[in-house]
Amino acid sequence: MRIGILGDIHANVEALSAVVDALRRERVDTWVQVGDIVGYGPEPSACIDIVRELGCITCLGNHDAAVLGLLDTSYFNNFARAAIHWTSPRLRPQDLEFLRSLQLVVRTPTFTVVHGTLSLPEQFGYVISAVEAIESLDQQETRLCFVGHSHVPAIYLRRRDQPNEIHMVNHAEAEISYRGFDQVLMNVGSVGQPRDEDPRAAYGLVDTDLEVACVKRVHYDIAGVQRKIRAAGLPDVLANRLGLGV
Length: 246
Ligand code: ZN
Fold this sequence. Notes:
alpha/beta; Purple Acid Phosphatase, chain A, domain 2; six-stranded mixed β-sheet; 8 helices; 12 strands; 31% helix; binds zinc ion
């Protein structure tokens, strides 16, 4: 199985289209999306359409929950909250229906999908170090788990007989073999708003036959989406940060 993994698309259709083109060239047969299709960016409905057309196995992100009114936005920063208030009234009924259908955790025989962490997924905690990785891995029943939320890619590997020993790969791009490891927790980074100081769109690719996991990057039309963000009246900072990857 070759799995293409998208995450934190954040209504950035320019970035999403570039990633989908790149993954099609990789002959992906299974598509996964780890949450936050909407929020921050100017084209939420177009991104939802693409995710649905691809047949992505999809979980609910905190921004997806917020536009549905399922999450208190008081802990969001001002720009994130402004984008939620911009997005909610612009979603079509079918968008809301689709987002409402999403679960916090999706389990398949091969992998698990969750936005933040398997440790209390409804609280949307972040996996940003080995400490949080261990807490999530302790709840992980499949060999593979895909997450997002931090917008920073990282792969955590663990052997069953060494539960406190985490092998971590956190480069902007990576290709690693997970042969010999019992658990893989992969943060695929963000398609639509990378925050690791690399402004290229990030995505994941896993080949379960070869036991190889990759974090990949692709250039996209950043200036194009910046223009749309400003034209939409969304906060300027949301356009500026895309150019910096922060
Ligand atoms: Zn996000």
